[in-house]
């Protein structure tokens, strides 16, 4: 029987690119309530069960160490770190998300407003570790960001970034397919090696056809850019989804696919300079 591929349907949004940086309003400011409703005080299920525990483990920090929560949003990971007796600070370009972070964290966390690529930020502060959770792929230029990460880290400090897996989770260029003959679900990838930017419709803008932007990069791009910034990759982990399908004729194949195709990738690098 011929394999049937059913791609996801996507709408073509108007070309209104996201601008970020400093106190200038961004689309993330306008989408902040929607995003906050997804993540909340303690994070989504993925945050709580996979991403935050995994990042904390990879940072390998003792209580009392200082960590920068890069692109912190409304401060979910910063609050997680507080519970681990770590001293966090947050940095984000969205003033509205930082307002939510300050309301929920009180005076326990110092939050900074600005673009992660701005070398003038943080007044010479240095940290034992830096973490960036599911945000690097929303950054148009990672070169200045990684240069700043190297500058903000103490010698031998660790930088951990988590991405939706750049090999298997490429927006509009990868999707699930079902092999009816073998009764298995598989992942199809149409593009990978070339960098690309992909507009993503983000509530509350779906009807207005505005969007945020996702930037796909192959692994070699991340590794080479980290290296040029004086950051040496010493660990890489791939994390699977913990979801399970409702009982049905495809559930076994879907659950097997989730255990074989990673959802997230975590890359740890160490400052070498």
UniProtKB/TrEMBL annotation:
Per UniProt, what is one Pfam family of this protein? Answer: Methyltransf_25
Which ranges of the sequence are coiled-coil?
none
Name the keywords, alphabetized.
Methyltransferase, Transferase
Name the residue ranges with Basic residues bias. Answer: 1-18
- Region annotated Disordered sits at 1-27
Example GO BP: methylation
Provide a Gene Ontology MF annotation, just one.
Answer: methyltransferase activity
Methyltransferase domain segment(s):
67-157
Which PANTHER family does its entry note?
Answer: TRANS-ACONITATE 2-METHYLTRANSFERASE (PTHR43861:SF1), TRANS-ACONITATE 2-METHYLTRANSFERASE-RELATED (PTHR43861)
Q: What is this protein called?
A: Methyltransferase domain-containing protein
Provenance organism: marine metagenome
Lineage of origin: unclassified sequences, metagenomes, ecological metagenomes
């Amino acid at each position: 029987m011929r394999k049937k591929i059913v791609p996801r349907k996507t709408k073509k949004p108007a070309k209104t690119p996201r601008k970020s940086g400093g106190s200038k309003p961004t689309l993330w400011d306008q989408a902040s309530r929607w995003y906050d409703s997804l993540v909340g005080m303690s994070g989504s299920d993925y945050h709580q069960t996979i991403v935050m525990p995994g990042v904390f483990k990879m940072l390998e920090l003792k209580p009392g160490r200082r960590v920068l929560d890069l692109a912190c949003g409304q401060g979910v990971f910063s609050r997680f770190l507080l519970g681990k007796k770590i001293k966090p600070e947050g940095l984000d370009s969205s003033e509205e998300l930082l307002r939510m972070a300050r309301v929920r964290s009180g005076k326990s966390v110092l939050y900074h407003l600005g673009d992660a690529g701005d070398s003038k930020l943080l007044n010479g502060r240095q940290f034992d570790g830096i973490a960036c959770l599911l945000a690097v792929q929303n950054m148009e230029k990672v070169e200045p960001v990684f240069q700043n990460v190297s500058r903000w880290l103490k010698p031998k400090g660790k930088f951990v970034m988590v991405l939706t897996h750049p090999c298997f989770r490429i927006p509009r260029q990868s999707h699930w397919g079902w092999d009816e003959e073998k009764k298995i679900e598989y992942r199809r990838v149409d593009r990978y090696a070339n960098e690309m930017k992909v507009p993503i419709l983000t509530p509350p803008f779906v009807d207005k056809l505005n969007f945020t932007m996702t930037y796909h990069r192959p692994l070699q791009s991340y590794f080479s850019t980290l290296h040029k910034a004086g950051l040496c990759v010493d660990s890489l982990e791939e994390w699977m989804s913990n979801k399970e399908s409702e009982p049905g004729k495809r559930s076994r194949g879907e659950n097997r696919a989730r255990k074989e195709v990673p959802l997230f990738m975590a890359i740890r690098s160490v400052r070498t300079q």
